[in-house]
Write a structure and sequence with these properties.
There is one protein chain. The protein is built from 3 helices and 4 strands. The protein is of the alpha/beta class. The chain has one domain. The chain has a 4-stranded parallel beta sheet with strand order 3-2-1-4, sandwiched between helices. Helix 1 (19-28) links the parallel strand 1 (6-10) and strand 2 (33-37). The model has no long low-confidence stretch (mean pLDDT 94).
Length: 98
């Protein structure tokens, strides 16, 4: 089952080795937004950005990312729900834990 257009990645990562496959699946599933919530969110967001961009040769690889290191999870979920990329405003994000 594909991911929805918006995801909240809840930290900490229990399986850091699953981050790269998760990001590739998000690219394949045309995820538009990944909100990273929890400790070290800034660092994980940077890793996701690099994984999405890769070597930069494929301009179609793009996902909006945000980092929320000090915000309660419910605030991040509200932010993602309100985000309106390609008309996805109001759609609830999927919460993912790796």
């Amino acid at each position: 089952m594909p991911y929805p257009s918006k995801i909240v990645l809840q930290l900490p990562l229990n399986a850091p080795d699953k981050l790269a496959p998760f990001v590739e699946r998000c690219v394949t599933d045309a995820v538009e937004l990944i909100c990273v919530a929890g400790p070290m969110a800034d660092e994980i967001e940077d890793q996701i950005d690099w994984l999405v961009v890769g070597d930069g040769s494929d301009e179609d690889r793009f996902i909006v990312t945000t980092a929320h290191p000090d915000e309660p999870l419910d605030h991040v979920i509200s932010f993602a729900t309100a985000w309106s990329g390609d008309g996805a405003s109001g759609e609830a994000p999927e919460i993912v834990r790796l």
